[in-house]
Amino acid sequence: MEHNPSQLAQASKVDVPDIQFVGVTKRFGNVAAVDNVDLSVESGAFFSFLGPSGCGKTTSLRMIAGFEQPTEGNVYINGQSVVGIPPHKRHVNMVFQQYALFPHMDVADNIGYGLRQRAPRPSKSEIAKRVDETLELVRLEGYGNRRVWEMSGGQQQRVALARALINHPTVLLLDEPLAALDRKLRREMQIELQTLQRDVGITFVLVTHDQEEALSMSDQICIMNEGRIVQTGSPRDLYDDPVSRYVADFVGKSNFFEGDVVDVNAGSYSIKSATGQVFSGFGSKGAPALVKGGKASIAVRPELLSIGSADGGNIDADVKILGQIKNRIFLGEHTEYLVECEGLGEVLVLSPKHIENIRGTFEPGASVTLGWMNDIALALGD
Description:
Layout (H helix, E strand, L loop, with lengths): L4 H11 L3 E10 L2 E11 L4 E5 L6 H9 L6 E6 L2 E2 L10 E4 L11 H5 L1 H4 L7 H14 L15 H13 L5 E5 L7 H18 L2 E6 L2 H7 L2 E6 L2 E6 L1 H6 L4 H6 L4 E11 L2 E5 L5 E6 L11 E6 L5 E4 L9 E12 L3 E8 L3 E8 H7 L7 E6 L5 E3 L2
Parallel strand pairs: 3-8, 3-9, 6-7, 7-8, 13-20
Antiparallel strand pairs: 1-2, 1-4, 4-5, 9-10, 11-12, 11-14, 12-13, 14-20, 15-19, 16-17, 16-19, 17-18
Helix pairs in contact: 5-6
């Protein structure tokens, strides 16, 4: 079937990602903060860069914003190269960790600041209309005349978001915008940001070192380490199928049992620990294959572990190990146990409240059995 040129152009435009890195490297002196990165962020996504300090996530965000230029490679926004283009000429806006609001202006003037810098400048009535619409969008109707220092931390964050959104950017960049908020307010604002992103349909790009924040808010997460991308995927993909021990350790919590690969069988691996115990697990999707004789780890998420009495009779598991409760923390919906297992070190267990209600709890010092099924264990390379 033939397509006319306009149809082809329209189809190709739809397929263009909002952000694309092609072979991007950024060096500061001899240090490569970002090292040969290829990346694509689809239109309308909530995308997060996640990683420890110095991994390259903030530098990547700053190259999207235009505050840094790549040493090598190309950065595209909506299919157009933006290398060499200054921040104020890019169709992106940024919300900073400290919000950078103007204390001498009221809320309405803060929000409308970007519109007043445009050439030609919109009329006062148009600016006022847009400010009111944006205040409604972030649920701050009637707050236009307030001074920003009269607002709570959560309200100031909404003002910063409104100021960024009023110009209808292609991409909204978020540089750890929730870091200054307390835990409860931070969780509330995570939900609000998710809702806001869905309402406006703009691509959001978040930088954070908080794994819980990234997992709870993002459609796609890019995990970085030492300037390179380690893995990109949905929160569930990264949690259930990490490609390496680094990812499993960074996303969520995991217990690792290290050793040598002694058997390889159609994606299943057996690893012999220093104690002589043999643990089995399956290779993760997309992870490099392990080789017999190589070093590897069996990873087991703490919520997938069972904990029972020392005789082990009340748990059903392929693998059972003995241990002693070192510490117990009650966290409401579950109890967190730290169990010392001889030769294996400390093992973390999260026991759900509904199980505790039936089986009871264990006191520090008690001898217990830990267990798990082989099909929930992952065999990962280092």
